[in-house]
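Practice problem 4.
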């Protein structure tokens, strides 16, 4: 490796959203605007990336761009890639194809007008593309994205498309159109593939475990690291959140414990990850992958993945 440039082995990604307003919406069905906490937490992330000299992809919500246009400009100015995470934080199963198209066009247009660059990537809120919401892939391409990174190739309670390709692949759509999918990383343990490299999985597992899993993944394919600004939030949530929590059913209070569990470990783990692995924005990792390997092609039909190369027509 002497004198060789360290290859980029992981796409470093951040889903830019405000944890307080999303928790109020998802857990208590109370709609509210994003709060300034997203700025405080993003400042921690941006200064860490600057210090470690790594660039990332920030999938940002349209509602955040509208309220905090300076944040978008800062991300772009510091040399990171900007992608879209939706307009509001609506999972795909809450939207119709028409509503998704309107929301994505709005968010993408807003960002492109502000930074004067084409936006290529999309990530669905809560990784909500699976067999049942596969229709969304067609809409994503139609709006003008070249790649998507929303699918966990595993079975899980909240999300996941079991049996989906673990490799970056090209999804063939109708009328000779296509979309690249950069699936989230999963690690094989006996009998199961489990998500790794971000969110709750980064919070719950000790660093050595995440590091071991990612090392194993990057020996076969590029990995994806992901996080949310609220995961670095160490402050107490506002009183209105605790009021809503106190009157919530026991099941919801229990779920929220997991949502916030072990947040204090995230900053140091993220720091170690960005030093240990060769990280880059997703679009760069995609381009490197395309140069090195032939991308597998699939057709998505009726929520099933059909291997294009083995299909005899
Ligand atoms: Zn999100």
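Answer key:
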């Amino acid at each position: 490796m002497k004198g060789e440039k360290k290859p980029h082995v992981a796409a470093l990604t951040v889903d830019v959203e405000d944890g307080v307003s999303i928790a109020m919406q998802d857990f208590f069905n109370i709609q509210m605007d994003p709060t300034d906490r997203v700025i405080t937490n993003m400042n921690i992330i941006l200064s860490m990336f600057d210090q470690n000299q790594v660039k990332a992809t920030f999938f940002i919500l349209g509602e955040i761009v509208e309220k905090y246009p300076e944040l978008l400009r800062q991300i772009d100015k510091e040399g990171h890639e900007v992608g879209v995470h939706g307009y509001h934080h609506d999972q795909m199963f809450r939207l119709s194809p028409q509503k998704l198209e309107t929301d994505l066009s709005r968010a993408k247009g807003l960002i492109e007008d502000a930074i004067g660059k084409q936006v290529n990537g999309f990530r669905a809120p809560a990784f909500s593309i699976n067999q049942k919401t596969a229709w969304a892939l067609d809409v994503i391409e139609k709006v003008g994205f070249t790649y998507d990174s929303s699918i966990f190739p595993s079975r899980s309670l909240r999300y996941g498309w079991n049996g989906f390709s673990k490799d970056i692949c090209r999804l063939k759509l109708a009328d000779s159109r296509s979309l690249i999918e950069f699936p989230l990383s999963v690690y094989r343990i006996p009998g199961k593939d489990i998500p790794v490299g971000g969110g709750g999985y980064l919070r719950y597992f000790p660093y050595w475990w995440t590091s071991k899993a990612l090392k194993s993944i990057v020996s076969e394919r590029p990995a994806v690291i992901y996080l949310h600004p609220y995961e670095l939030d160490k402050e107490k949530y506002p009183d209105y959140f605790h009021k809503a929590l106190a009157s919530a059913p026991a099941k919801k209070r229990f779920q929220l414990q997991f949502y916030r569990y072990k947040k204090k470990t995230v900053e140091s783990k993220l720091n170690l990850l960005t030093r240990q692995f060769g990280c880059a924005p997703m679009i760069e990792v995609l381009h490197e992958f395309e140069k090195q390997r032939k991308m597998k092609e699939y057709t998505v039909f009726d929520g099933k993945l059909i291997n294009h190369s083995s299909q005899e027509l």
